[in-house]
Automatic annotation (TrEMBL):
It comes from Caproicibacter fermentans. Belongs to the PNP/UDP phosphorylase family. This is Purine nucleoside phosphorylase DeoD-type. One of its GO terms (cellular component) is cytosol. It catalyses: a purine D-ribonucleoside + phosphate = a purine nucleobase + alpha-D-ribose 1-phosphate; a purine 2'-deoxy-D-ribonucleoside + phosphate = a purine nucleobase + 2-deoxy-alpha-D-ribose 1-phosphate; uridine + phosphate = alpha-D-ribose 1-phosphate + uracil.
Length: 236
């Protein structure tokens, strides 16, 4: 492939699988590789955004961190789709649960990603683009969740540019619209996939609930999301 390695990814052509699992935290990528992949080889250490390729149940799979926020995940997923020939990216991230009935450790599959970001402005569209998951990946995730005994909640999430928002009522307004959870990357992932003609899905584990005060520790966020990881790996 042209343009590889890149300033952000040290992998050479052929070192990344067609399906990539992408947590935000590179240490979670390392954990997934060590726990689930056979013969995992590290293909990237640039900026400590660790990436690994191995096999899962005989199938090639890569896992790579994507960082925090849409600018970061936008760079890594763009390069994976357009420079490295990746076909599928499955985000395996954390989110804050905002809907009633959503609690810590719940798994959420994002049908769509509402956003307060201006990321779509680059496409100069004559309207508003609705970032959505690949239906094939989403439908398989729902079916596989049932087989694995995972109760996955399916619905809209919010991809926000602001972790610390100055608008105190923002999440309450999104909750009124049925949004299940808030995170910071899915919308950019879905837009990059749409533009490249590729496939993407965002799976999330609820790490905290702003309205109830429920919260997991940093260590639990790094290594405790095994249900989501196993569901994502079942799609590879």
């Amino acid at each position: 492939m042209p343009n590889v390695p890149t300033p952000h990814n040290g992998a050479k052509d052929g070192e990344i699988a067609k399906t990539v699992l992408m947590p935000g935290d590179p240490l979670r990528a390392k954990y997934i590789a060590e726990k689930y992949l056979k013969n995992a080889v590290c293909f990237n250490t640039v900026r400590n955004m660790l990436g690994f390729t191995g096999t899962y149940q005989g199938r090639p799979v890569s896992v790579m961190g994507g960082g925090m926020g849409m600018p970061s995940v936008g760079i890594y997923t763009y390069e994976l789709f357009n420079f490295y020939g990746v076909d599928n990216i499955i985000r395996v991230g954390s989110a804050g649960g905002i809907a009633d009935g959503v609690h810590v450790k719940d798994v959420v599959a994002a049908v769509g990603a509402c956003t307060d970001s201006n990321y779509a402005a680059q496409y100069r569209l004559p309207g508003t683009f609705a970032p959505t998951a690949d239906y094939g990946l989403l439908s398989r995730a729902v079916e596989n969740a049932k087989k694995l005994g995972i109760s996955a909640k399916v619905g809209n999430v919010l991809s926000s540019d602001a972790f610390y928002s100055d608008q105190e009522d923002a999440l309450k307004l999104w909750r009124k619209m049925g949004v299940l959870a808030v995170e910071m990357e899915a919308a950019a992932l879905y837009m990059n996939a749409a533009r490249a003609g590729k496939h993407a899905l965002c799976l999330l584990t609820i790490s905290d609930c702003p309205f109830t005060g429920e919260s997991l520790s940093a260590a639990e966020r790094e290594t405790g999301f095994t249900k989501m990881m196993e569901l994502a790996l079942s799609l590879a």
